[in-house]
Design a protein that fits this description.
Rossmann fold, 2 domains, binds D-mannonic acid
């Protein structure tokens, strides 16, 4: 079977780029070429290009992997997004990615691109742990492996913050405006957070550079949402049956997608609203809602699944007692939220339960369970602090915390950048050694004795039940 490429003759039912792909030129560099970006921002960009064509082709940069870049080259940037829900499967071929670069092999090319006047936006999906955030201060962690390297050799950066700072330094030297930095990772106030990290690193190399970025740079926050599991067994075969060609980059996802963005760009942007993106002045209420209701419940489901031997989110959602837990968690999380403009929270919660239960989506609980130290602070600990401050018992959050600790003790060593510290804490008794890990739990929780007793009580029950 022919390999998918820009010249493949696709069956009529397959949606394809509705613009002149040969006329597309680069305007965006995206760092982090994972499944999520390809099924989210790239799809919105494809829709934007069809509605209002412009110089907004995406050049994808992979910081570590080289395989994905080879596959993108082999298919001329084309790949299939298969949407799976109760109505069946639909295939859409995306053309917005016009080139791909592996930073480990072509670092000079990545830096040259960032200094190219045609590039006006740099978007990011590198995962929570890649940024090098010091959990105690919220600023840059100089001990993070990539940050250490990039502080020592700033002109040959390897990590995301180092690459952004060197790119911005080159633009300043060339008398160009900065590019807009648009973070699309699941972190609270993600634009503000990345701005702080970039300024921290710039400050350490050149105060004038930091002042220039602070004055001219733009770092809009954004809330992104679409459930996109890593490609599963059968993904490629299903895509091939739909498009009549072989696609090694095919992805499967749900129909739902959401993107809420602060409309604050240095020098223009694609018409992402054509794909359904919402432009607002303050993303905070949307992002809090999503991190606490979707991602918080996801972490609950992931640890329930891991402790009960359930491999997929849909397996957990097939058991009524777990669904009841999920609903109770959402109830507690919703109580910590401000109203979200134009959104009915009850409907949003009901829709989430249906999305998690989607039988056609094979989302591994192991994938969501990883990196707990990077995910739980914004998903579970922050709402716990707020619930306690307003007089609640925050028991739902104590329960997820206990599940995570039980998972770490039972499954260790776990996939987490702080795995060694977690393993050391797990070799001692009780939860106290975990609460002593620097910067992991907010101070308000470390000193909340009543809440910590609830964590211990849940942990004892889980131990007694063998899970
Ligand atoms: C998940 C997210 O892996 C995880 O931690 O909670 O990737 C989740 O699927 C997305 O944020 C959905 O938008």
């Amino acid at each position: 079977m022919e390999r998918l490429s820009p010249t493949t003759a696709l069956p009529a039912h397959v949606q394809r780029p509705a613009y002149d792909r040969t006329a597309l030129t680069p305007g965006i560099v995206h760092i982090g070429l994972g499944a999520f970006h390809r099924a989210h921002q790239a799809v919105y960009t494809d829709a934007a290009l069809a509605a209002a064509f412009g110089p907004w082709g995406i050049v994808g940069v992979s910081l570590r992997s080289t395989d994905i870049v080879q596959e993108m080259h082999a298919q001329g940037g084309f790949y299939t997004v298969v949407t799976r829900d109760a109505d069946g499967d639909t295939a859409r071929v995306i053309g917005a990615e016009i080139d791909a670069v592996a930073a480990t092999q072509q670092r000079a090319r990545v830096l040259a691109l960032l200094a190219d006047p045609a590039i006006r936006i740099v978007t990011l999906t590198v995962s929570e742990k890649a940024y090098g955030i010091d959990p105690s201060t919220g600023g840059l962690d100089p001990a993070h492996p990539a940050v250490t390297v990039d502080l020592a050799t700033p002109h040959a950066p390897t990590g995301v913050v180092g690459v952004l700072v060197e790119g911005l330094a080159r633009r300043r030297a060339a008398d160009l405006p900065p590019f807009t930095v648009l973070c699309c990772d699941n972190l609270p106030s993600n634009g503000r957070l990345v701005r702080r990290l970039v300024l921290d690193m710039a400050e350490r190399r050149d105060a004038a550079l930091a002042a220039w970025i602070a004055a001219k740079g733009r770092f809009p926050s954004s809330m992104v949402d679409r459930i996109v599991p890593a490609a599963a067994e059968g993904t490629r075969a299903r895509a091939a049956a739909l498009i009549g060609a072989q696609d090694r980059l095919a992805l499967e996802t749900e129909a739902f997608a959401q993107w809420v963005i602060e409309d604050d760009f240095v020098d223009g942007r694609p018409a992402w609203e054509a794909g359904g993106a919402l432009f607002v002045t303050d993303v905070a209420p949307y992002e809090k809602m999503k991190l606490r209701l979707l991602n918080g419940s996801h972490s609950l489901i992931a640890y329930l699944g891991q402790l009960h031997g359930l491999d997929y989110v849909r397996d957990v959602m097939a058991l009524p007692e777990h669904v009841a837990r999920v609903r109770a968690h959402m109830e507690a999380a919703a109580a910590t939220l401000d109203p979200v403009p134009g959104l009915d929270l009850a409907a949003y919660r009901a829709q989430l339960v249906a999305r998690f239960a989607n039988p056609a989506i094979a989302h591994r609980t192991a994938q969501i369970a990883m990196d707990g130290t990077q995910k739980l602070p914004q998903r579970i600990f922050a709402p716990a602090v707020e619930a306690l401050a307003s007089g609640g018992d925050a028991d739902a959050f104590a329960y997820v915390t206990a599940l995570w600790l039980a998972y770490v003790r039972r499954m260790g060593p776990v996939d987490d950048p702080r795995a060694a510290e977690l393993a050391a804490a797990a070799s001692q008794t009780g939860s106290a050694p975990f609460f002593a890990l620097p910067g992991l739990f907010p101070r308000e929780l470390v000193s909340a004795n009543g809440w910590r007793q609830r964590v211990d009580a849940h942990l004892a029950t889980l131990d007694a039940a063998g899970r």
